[in-house]
Design goal:
Number of domains: 2
CATH architecture of the largest domain: 3-Layer(aba) Sandwich
Shape: globular
Largest sheet: 7 strands, mixed
Bound molecules: ligand C6P
Number of strands: 17
Low-confidence stretches: 1-9
Mean pLDDT: 96
Number of helices: 14
CATH class of the largest domain: Alpha Beta
Structural class: alpha/beta
CATH topology of the largest domain: Aspartate Aminotransferase, domain 2
């Protein structure tokens, strides 16, 4: 992704007007208007998403794929229409390649336990990078314990950029899978995923992309990327919690065994054995989060109306503005200064613990996250226990960042 491509869309982005679509942004917190800058953790929900969920429960609540009655038909249609919304949004070839899961974490665990257990053995290697979220580390460690496979890590440099020469060198004879974040949640680094995929494919190695921090901030086209798996969570894309997506190429999903057994994933069951349903249902055992999927469909429609290209350009402009403001604060060090970055401002301030910073900001109605961001190896690399992190969404404005900077100046004056 080259953000500069989107420069033409930067003008006149209607963030102030869009704020009105998000009821929670109208409320005050601790006596101040809310400046919500914790979007990498979860985004707020527009009225359209809230309405779509509540309409489902008010008007068509029923179980899907099972009932012969009208309500069940309507619920099934709405659920499958949401799948089509997702397919279109990430440009998958067919809805059979869109598996609904709880979120990114579950999607990656599904691939580890189904694809991984079926295809990896002792001495085989899985290649990840030094900037991964725990969700793209621990499932592979579990798989390694189960199969005897080995985890390899391409390190980052001091800007938080993956060392590509090392990545390429680590792609070896025994590499069976590559799993990389599209965007780092702790640093904001945008990985050159297209280049990584090409390098891996040149050696016949499939690639999983963790898109948790990408889909709400940059256009994603899984066919153009050429990835084999792409995982993301609805709740970081203005949709409800508890719903997410695993995209997988049909040929791979077809060959993979189910990972959970239960209703809806089977074609036939007898005490002698069972056969499996068609894709994507083979991977969707049990009653799914129907309202969540419908809410995700509504969130995608909202994003498409705003225009993902426009959002990418606008957030990048905000990132530049926020970076300029923060770097003027005495004693503040940015963690994550890669050339290609998404809207994440991670930082530490001399003499102040990130949690204390978070508390001071909260007292001013400014919501950020403080901690290791489920990326402990990143913290270890930079030699810090935690960072403070402001993360952007389409409804943030320069005023939110002004308030962040003001509160930080106050904190530095008070405590340093
Ligand atoms: N990062 C953050 O504050 P789930 O929890 O399954 O929706 O997403 C997991 C996940 C996987 N990969 C990346 C790159 C992520 O950022 C996250 C979630 C949140 O940064 C919560 S720790």
């Amino acid at each position: 992704m080259n953000i500069a491509t989107y420069a033409a869309h930067r003008q006149d982005f209607p963030a102030a007007r869009l704020r009105a679509d998000f009821p929670i942004l109208q409320r005050s917190v601790r006596g101040h208007p809310l400046a919500y800058l914790d979007n990498a953790a979860t985004t707020q929900k527009p009225q359209a998403v809230i309405d779509s969920e509540s309409a489902y429960y008010r008007e068509i609540n029923a179980n899907i794929h099972r009932g012969v009655h009208w309500l069940s038909e309507q619920a099934t249609l709405a659920h499958e229409n949401a799948r089509e919304r997702v397919r279109e949004f990430i440009n998958a070839r067919e809805t059979a390649e869109i598996v609904f899961v709880r979120g990114t974490t579950e999607a990656i665990n599904l691939v580890a336990q189904s694809y991984g257990r079926a295809n990896l053995g002792p001495g085989d290697e899985i290649l990840i990078t030094g900037l991964e979220h725990h969700s793209n580390i621990v499932p592979w460690q579990l798989l390694c314990q189960q199969t005897g496979a080995v985890l390899k890590v391409a390190e980052i440099d001091d800007t938080g950029t993956v060392r590509m020469e090392q990545f390429e060198r680590l792609l070896g004879e025994r590499t069976r899978l590559v799993a990389v974040a599209h965007v780092s949640n702790a640093l904001g680094t945008i990985n050159p995923v297209r280049e990584m995929i090409d390098l891996a494919h040149a050696r016949g190695v499939p690639v999983l992309v963790d898109g948790a921090q990408a889909v709400a901030h940059t256009p994603v086209d899984v066919q153009a990327l050429g990835c084999d798996f792409y995982a993301f969570s609805g709740h970081k894309l203005y949709a409800p919690t508890g719903i997410g997506v695993l995209y997988g190429r049909r040929a791979l999903l077809e060959a993979m065994p189910p990972w959970q057994g239960g209703g809806d994933m089977i074609r036939t069951v007898s005490f002698q054995g069972s056969t499996w349903n068609d894709l994507p249902h083979k991977f969707e055992a049990g009653t799914p989060h129907i309202a969540g999927a419908i809410g995700l469909g509504a969130a995608i429609t909202y994003m498409q109306q705003v225009g993902v290209h426009n959002v990418a350009a606008y957030e990048h402009e905000l990132l530049d503005y926020g970076t300029q403001l923060l770097t003027q604060i005495p004693g503040l060090r940015m963690i994550g200064t890669a050339q290609n970055k998404a809207g994440i401002l991670s930082f530490v301030v001399d003499g102040l613990h990130a949690h204390d910073l978070g508390t001071v900001l909260d007292s001013q109605g400014v919501a950020i996250r403080a901690g290791h961001h489920c990326a402990m190896p990143v913290m270890e690399y930079f030699g810090v226990p935690a960072t403070a992190r402001a993360s952007l969404a389409l409804y943030n404005t320069r005023e939110d960042l002004d308030r962040l900077a003001q509160a930080l100046h106050q904190a530095v004056e008070m405590f340093c």
